[in-house]
Write a structure and sequence with these properties.
Elements: E1 29-36, H1 45-64, H2 68-86, E2 91-97, E3 100-103, E4 106-109, E5 113-121, E6 124-131, E7 138-142, H3 148-155, H4 168-179
Antiparallel strand pairs: 1-2, 2-3, 3-4, 5-6, 6-7
Length: about 200
């Protein structure tokens, strides 16, 4: 039988790989604005009286079951609520850049951020952004006097605008706030009907 000749593939000459050049994009600030660090609503005496009464009753119940640590935690929480309802927040600076968001001196890169949406808290417009790495799990940036449309136009290039569903804790908190209001809205003054003289 005739022998079949095996054809050897042509060997390509060895070539050195081309060097990879990494071009680092410099930081570019796209938008800067200042706003209060948190939403604020000055509370009246009725609010603190109602909240104090509820916390006092809960503390009495916890003392009966000897939950002293929870009592201390409630006292600390009530002090925090008092401070947040009486002391106006300071202003901070927020920056949107081509690499992420800078707020309170910390940079949150776009890669670690998720969805964004807008909410209304008291009378303030608030920008909410998911944060997948570290604390907090959500960034809360007040818009102040900054244009909402301008912020949205920049964020649309990097993140998805979508408001997530409320968690069970948020649903319970919302329900409790509606059913047990700590302060009432000022009622409209009743109009006295004029009696017609006969």
């Amino acid at each position: 039988m005739p022998k079949t000749e095996q054809v050897q593939p042509e060997q390509m000459p060895y070539q050195e790989p081309a060097p990879v050049t990494i071009v680092k994009e410099p930081l570019k600030i796209l938008l800067t604005w200042k706003a209060p660090i948190r939403p604020f609503k000055k509370r009246n005496r009725e609010y603190f009286t109602t909240a104090g009464s509820i916390i006092f009753l809960i503390c009495i119940i916890l003392l009966f079951v000897k939950e002293f640590l929870l009592v201390l935690a409630l006292i600390a929480l009530s002090f925090l609520v008092y401070i947040m309802g009486t002391v106006e927040p300071e202003e901070v600076e927020h920056k949107l850049t081509n690499k992420g968001i800078i707020t309170l001196g910390k940079t949150y890169f776009w890669e670690q951020l998720g969805r964004f949406w807008f909410e209304k808290k008291f009378n303030d417009e608030v920008l909410m952004i998911e944060n997948f790495i570290g604390i907090p799990s959500r960034l809360m940036l007040l818009l102040g006097k900054q244009d909402k449309i301008q912020i949205k136009a920049i964020l649309d290039k990097y993140l998805l605008q979508e408001k997530p569903e409320l968690s069970q804790v948020e649903k319970m908190s919302k329900w409790l706030g509606e059913k047990v209001p700590l302060e009432t809205n000022p009622a409209a003054k009743p109009q006295n009907s004029q009696k017609t003289k006969k």
